[in-house]
């Protein structure tokens, strides 16, 4: 059977491929991208995480709060989230407050789709060394040790974070007071 094909972008920005067999009087959806809201790059902004099984689909990571509560409540998550408590190395040491000078640590977030813009750290050849390397660099925001790859670290704001059943653990750097 001969098929007619349509490829178009919907009013919601979804790219659709639709075939129609000549004998049928309707168009089928062959595939479409993005398939869900989590597939849209940057929809959750920095330090936001997308969980397609929840409503709303976006939330801030533990230790973070929306950059703009007004926009967040409207479902516009693109501004993302900011730290509730600064990291020890970001503080003004003449005025140490709630952390009492205690070191930063990591929160383990299982089953994460590892985000773009990581750096590969060659000398950190174990998970422990990878975490130590991150803690010794004030710009390090998170780390992950992937057996087949090695140590990955993020020095920029984490964007495009999503829960995934087949990915790795991400160790998010937090102030000591946020670890409890």
UniProtKB/TrEMBL annotation:
Pfam families linked to this entry: PAN_2, S_locus_glycop
Entry annotated with the keyword Disulfide bond: yes
Alphabetical list of InterPro entries matching this protein: Pan_app, S_locus_glycoprot_dom
Domain Apple: 89-175
UniProtKB keywords: Disulfide bond, Signal
Keyword Glycoprotein: no
Gene Ontology BP terms: recognition of pollen
Highest taxon listed in the record's lineage: Eukaryota
Protein name stated in the entry: S-locus glycoprotein domain containing protein
Listed CDD domains: PAN_AP_plant
């Amino acid at each position: 059977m001969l098929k007619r094909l349509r490829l178009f972008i919907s009013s919601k920005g979804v790219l659709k491929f639709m075939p129609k067999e000549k004998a049928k009087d309707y168009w089928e959806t062959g595939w479409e991208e993005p398939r869900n809201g989590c597939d849209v790059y940057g929809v959750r902004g920095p330090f936001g995480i997308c969980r397609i099984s929840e409503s709303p689909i976006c939330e801030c990571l533990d230790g973070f709060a929306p950059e703009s509560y007004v926009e967040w409540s409207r479902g516009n998550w693109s501004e993302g989230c900011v730290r509730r408590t600064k990291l020890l190395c970001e503080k003004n040491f003449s005025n140490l407050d709630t952390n009492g000078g205690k070191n930063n640590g990591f929160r383990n977030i299982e089953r994460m789709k590892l985000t773009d813009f990581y750096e590969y750290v060659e000398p950190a050849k174990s998970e422990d060394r990878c975490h130590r390397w991150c803690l010794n660099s004030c710009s390090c925001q998170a780390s992950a040790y992937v057996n087949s790859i090695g140590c990955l670290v993020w020095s920029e704001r984490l964007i495009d974070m999503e829960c995934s059943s087949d990915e790795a653990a991400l160790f998010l750097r937090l102030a000591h007071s946020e670890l409890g």
